Amino acid sequence: MAPCPAGDAMGVGEAVVVAGIGCRKGVSATEIEAVIAAALQQAGFAQDRLGAIATPADKGEEAGIAAVALLYGLPLLFVAKPDLEAAAARCETHSERVLAVTGVPSVAEAAALAAGGPEAKLLVARIVVGPATCALAETGAAP
To answer: Which of 14, 20, 102, 139 is deepest in the core (most CB within 10 A)?
Structure first.
């Protein structure tokens, strides 16, 4: 499974749950699994509700994120910085440190919302488990 740009994997006519991921450099697959599991538990969802994993394009070298996407059989969507910035206004969590470094108030929330599209709704705001963050968003209703 090859990673793809954020606009390429959402099914037309279907609502999809997207896990947005933020992390420190070198995060392990186990750490990514843990933060996704925590977000899913908070939402009351089973893992099979996930339709995609999204992360900023500059996280493309993070083997832990790619390994989890492969393990779950999900598309890994790399979100370009302009798309993250466009979704920033819809983020619920605001970290001044993250904003200063990345230009968005929450990497995980912005990634989930951007990958979900302009009508995406945040289901679970950013949660932190160790060196990783996760937020869940659902794509908008079918056109």
So the answer is: 20
